[in-house]
Amino acid sequence: MTCLYRKLLSKNVVMVLAMVFIAFLTSGGVYILTSMPGAVVSTGTGTGFMARSSTSQTTTEFFAVLFLTLAGSAGLILLEGALRSSFDLSGSKIRYIAALGLFGLSIALMEFLIWAKYG
Asked: Which residues of 13-40 are buried (b: 16+ CB within 10 A; e: fewer)?
């Protein structure tokens, strides 16, 4: 039983839980829990997945930002691991490129979401 607690409270598990919690907070999780908005909003031309307001958001926006934040964080963690391991250069280069691609894609899609929301 003690071994199970040590695995659950290991440094990596606590780090991942903290990362998910921070991503939840920064992507608007508290607003989603308190306001309980829908997944879509009505617009002048029909329905949309994004609320064009800086004071409200939809559940769809929350999940998009949450997953993009987690993807960017995973890219940074991969980048740190790739820069730390220098003995395997080919594997390190692949992880380095994948990490930069994941982080760059996350930032680009976040920029697109900002442009689409406030356009």
From this structure: eeeeeebeeebbeebbeeebeeeebeee
The tokens 């308190």 sit on which residue?
A: 34
Q: Which residues pair with 106 in a beta bridge?
A: none
Lowest mean pLDDT among 71-75, 84-88, 96-100: 84-88
List, for residues 9-65, the tens digit of each pLDDT value: 888 888 889 999 999 999 999 999 999 998 888 878 888 888 888 888 999 999 999
Residue 69: other Cβ atoms inside 10 A: 20
Task: With beta carbons less than 8 A apart as the criterion, state whether 100 and 75 touch.
Answer: yes
The phi-psi region of residue 56 (left if phi > 0; otherwise alpha if psi is between -120 and 50; otherwise beta) is beta
